[in-house]
Amino acid sequence: MNEVAVDLDAASTVELVNAASVIAAELARRNAPESAAVCVELTETLAAAVDMHEAALAGLIGVVDNGREVQRWGFPSTRSWLRNRLGMRDARAKERLALARQRSRLTQVTERWVAGSLSYGYAATIAGAVARLDDDDCPVAEEILLGMVDQNFSAGKVASFGRRIRDVIAERDDTGPAPGDARRGYERSWIDSTRSLDGGRYIKGWLNTEDAAIWDGTLGPLAKPAGTDDHRDLSERTAAALASVLSGGHRATKITVICDLDTLTGGTIPARLPDGTPIPAEQARRIALSAGVSTLLLGSGGLPLYLGRTERFASPAQRRVLEALNPTCAVQGCEVPGTLCEVDHVNGWALGSPTDIDQLTLTCGWHNRFKATSPHQIHITRTADGRHTYRLRSRASRLPGGRPPDPWWVEPKTITTPTRPPPHRPPGHDLVKVDHPPSGP
After folding, report:
1. In a domain, 406, yes or no
2. Which helix (H) or strand (E) holds 127?
3. At which of 365, 380, 396 does a domain end?
4. Which of 32-36, 158-162, 289-293, 402-406 has the lowest mean pLDDT?
5. CA–CA gap between residue 167 and residue 56 (Å, rounded)
6. Helix (H, G, I), strand (E, B), or coil: what is residue 123?
7. What is the reported pLDDT for 233?
């Protein structure tokens, strides 16, 4: 049997993380016991351990976020790194980042979380509730919400109170809302926007007094009933008013819908937005009725606008095509909109790349310079619809000799594997041991 032993007092953080990884991998390989009663107990024990692992993870993410380490490897933000490098869903990445950033302010939450007396769910709920509170209100909110936890309120109920925590603080302190009800909001306006599965979008937020006045002055007149036959409620009319302003209220606003000529003349092939969201053929024709329509002439293979080596800089028409194909920077995980990006020669103008549409893409200014100075750190692929995608190689693949190292965020240290405990300790004292099945047949 192979044995891995780690001295808990003497081990470094790197060694403990590697040991936890080994234990987790071994647990994942094993089948669950057949007894349901045993599984209940083991599940509760393991869930508590996972919660404490999350506490350690929040500390590590906090250091990464404060040090802006991920920007050195081409990620625009810590949240982008969590999503694209670690494979987290956006909601989970957002939740873990909030915990990492609020950990230092939530001293009681952190102490109880690390001690195992507070679950990850409650900790994440409280961190989300205080994210926009100032340093004076944060400890007050923490005390109130922890009191609800002690009274066995569910995490959902705590989250509900957290959404109106300023009101709860005011009621507890008997101060009441400030004049103009400003205490009910925040110092700055904010809007959260989440895309639904069918391509729609949920919106929630809060506007301060000045922004609310602009909202009312702009949308108020447009949100009035259109006549006696207008049976929409106020919410529906407000949404229509907002869409009207966004589509025509600013000269720089534009929407690109990509569709076949057959679709515009009565066909059934769906159109699509630049990000791939499908648009029903009927809806695409309705959009075309009130939109400017222009054609893009395609050359052989369906690739438009070739300028060769006669021009170094992309033409306005080429840029328009690139913006239709690339909603964001070509680097995977970069969220800079394509309209704010620079045109990049995929294989480099200085290396002989022509200014042809199939040799161009859009990258943000930072990644454009990064690619020019470190071309070997970029892996380029091309999708079926002609778009180029850049992927930053992990640090592992950039090492001399191409040796496969440990995970790139971990120092390349190995776990010591003593065959017996140190002489000054009783056998098995303060040790974590993991047994592995022997290798081979």
Report:
1. no
2. helix 120-130
3. 396
4. 402-406
5. 32
6. helix
7. 81
pLDDT, residue 99, reads 93
Tell me, yes or no, whether 182 and 86 share the same domain.
yes
121 or 413: whose pLDDT is higher? 121
User: How far apart are the C-alpha atoms of 363 and 340, rounded to whole Å?
Assistant: 9
CA torsion angle 384 388 391 392 (round to 10):
170
For residue 154, what are the domain limits?
31-186
Taking residues 25-52, report their average pLDDT.
92
**Are both 171 and 82 inside the same structural domain?**
yes
Give the gyration radius of the chain's Cα atoms.
28
| Residue 218 is assigned to a structural domain of this protein | no
- Whether residues 70 and 181 share a domain: the answer is yes
What is the per-residue pLDDT for 173? 60
Residue 37 lies inside a defined structural domain of this protein? yes
How many separate domains does the chain show? 3
DSSP 394: P
Q: Are residues 329 and 286 in the same domain?
A: no
In angstroms, the CA 148 to CA 170 distance is: 16
Q: Mark out the alpha helices in 185-233 (DSSP H runs).
A: 209-222
- Report whether 271 contacts 286 (CB < 8 A): no
Q: Is the pLDDT of residue 253 over 60?
A: no
Predicted pLDDT at 304: 46
What is the Cα–Cα distance from 325 to 315, expressed in whole angstroms?
Answer: 15
Q: Among 321-325, 331-335, 359-363, which range has the highest average pLDDT?
A: 359-363
Cα angle 284, 334, 71; round to 5? 165
One domain for residues 307 and 291? no
259 in the same domain as 307: no
Residue 141: inside a domain, yes or no? Answer: yes
| Chain position carrying tokens 């009783």 | 426
Rounded CA gap, 32 and 15, in Å? 27
